[in-house]
Amino acid sequence: MKFGKFILALLFLMVLFSYLYTETYWVETKEVVIESPDIPPEFDGKRIVFITDIHAGPYFPPERVDGVVKKVNSLEPDLILLGGDYIDRDYEYVPPVFESMEKLSAPMGVYGVLGNNDPQYLTLKTFEESPLNYIGNTGEWIQINDSRIRVAGVGDFNNGQQLIDRALGDATAEDFVILLSHNPDYFPELDHSMVDLVLAGHTHGGQVTFFGLWAPVMRTIYGQKYITGLIEENGSTMIVSNGLGTVILPVRFFAKPQIHVIELKSVN
What is the value of pTM for the model shown? Predict the structure, then answer.
């Protein structure tokens, strides 16, 4: 009798760990429509793909990064934004990851910031030597004819600087501004009248959750508030992605990896 219970328990654990591992490969494509009167009509219908937290390493080898790049390009984005943590602290993965990401293609460009796990000097150097656009504590105007939107970024909230004035440049409250912040905990620090959309990652959606309802391990100082999803505060919107990779162990539970496709909609 005891032996039978042991076998059942063992089978249950095998099935559970198999599921935990398998979910790391179940990448969701999340589609979101962002409406704003600050979006110029020329940008109506433009599609942005946002990815973050690849965490390339032994559990996310270069061939998986190549698969992500192919998937992103297949979505035919107008603009691609990258939220950081490309590497899981291992320097040797920096060159192959950027070799893969250099194949990302969008007519309006590819822009990104760093995360807390990126080896700062080498990742930044490789970023700046690549055709990708690094916008940590700076920004760029994306222009169509005489209309424009601002794409900006700040340093990581835990181990970087957030020079928001430099990031915003000459943007005004009437401009549509997208801000990349690897860590969602920077969201409450913002002047929400100046930033329309924040894109963040870092939390992995909790990575292992209680059926998506509660995460025992939180990578945010705000509890469950900024774990995942779409958050609206004081006239600004933040999207927190579950990211693509994992930390510590290659497991997920009701926190599937995500690619976000954001469609801009101009409204009167």
Answer: 0.94
Measure the CA dihedral 121/127/129/132, to 10°: -170
CA atoms within 13 A on the CB side of 21: 7
Query: Would you state the structure tokens that stand for residue 124, as one six-digit string?
Result: 């930044």
Contact 49, 72 (CB under 8 A): yes
* CA–CA distance, 106 with 49 (Å, rounded to integer): 9
Give the Cα separation of 209 and 233 in Å (integer): 24
Nearest CA to 142 out of 32, 52, 46 is that of: 46
Residue from 161, 249, 162, 234 nearest 204 by CA = 249
Virtual torsion, Cα 223, 228, 230, 236, nearest 10 deg: 50
Q: Tokens in use for 54?
A: 């690849």
* CA-based nearest residue to 68, from 97, 95, 30, 111: 97
pLDDT digits (tens, 9 = 90+) for 3-22: 666 566 666 666 667 888 89
Q: Which pLDDT tens digit goes with each residue over 20-60?
A: 889 999 999 999 999 999 999 999 999 999 999 999 999 99
Amino acid at 241: S
Q: Do 148 and 46 meet the contact criterion of CB atoms below 8 Å apart?
A: no
Residue whose token pair is 């994306």: 142
- Which of these, 19, 53, 66, 44, lies nearest to 176 by C-alpha position? 44
Read off the pLDDT of residues 88-133 as tens digits, 9 standing for 90 and up: 878 999 999 999 999 999 999 999 999 999 998 999 999 999 999 9
Contacts of 180 (CB under 8 A, 6+ apart): 81, 82, 83, 84, 111, 112, 113, 135, 151, 152, 153, 154, 198, 199, 200
